[in-house]
Amino acid sequence: MTSDTVTPCPDCGLAHGQREGHPPPALVHRARDYIAASEWTFAKTMPDNPHWYVVRQRAWGTSRELGEGHEALFELIRWFYYLRWWRGRGFRSIDLDEFSYWIMEDGTVINRKPADAAGWDDESRLC
């Protein structure tokens, strides 16, 4: 796998990997609605990687709509990702609007930080 620059797709506006084609517009719309409606918590225990996160259980505990939104954003990242590297570990990521979003392996936590923020190990890798 070679390093490539990741740029927003001209067809869907999402910076994503190439492995699954383009995401369904309805999935992107649901993910955006969830992003806007969620309370993002600053990860104060990681000052060397400033970012925010949301937790699946909190979303489902708030409303079914937020729970389904969390699942939509998770699925968007899970299937349409590119790899971002931090401390030698690859994370499934997408760039949507002004933020990079990445998931932890079990999907419980979704993280985000400004797409132009520094701190990743090296160039992103398209999948």
Explain what this protein looks like in three dimensions.
- The chain has 127 residues and is of the alpha+beta class.
- Helix content is 28%, strand content 24%.
Strand order, sheet with most strands: 1-2-6-5-4-3
Roughly how many Å is the radius of gyration?
Answer: 14 Å
List the total number of helices.
3
The percentage helix is 25-40%
Question: Which descriptor suits the 3D outline?
Answer: globular
What is the count of distinct domains? 1
What's the overall average pLDDT, rounded?
81
Tally of DSSP β-strands: 6
- Classify the beta-strand content into a percent band: 15-25%
- Low-pLDDT parts are none
Largest sheet geometry: 6 strands, antiparallel
What's the helix and strand layout?
Blueprint: H1 25-37, E1 41-42, E2 52-55, H2 56-62, H3 64-79, E3 82-86, E4 89-96, E5 99-103, E6 109-114
Antiparallel strand pairs: 1-2, 2-6, 3-4, 4-5, 5-6
Helix pairs in contact: 1-3, 2-3
Short description:
This protein has one domain.
Describe the structure using short key phrases.
six-stranded antiparallel sheet, 127 residues, alpha+beta, globular
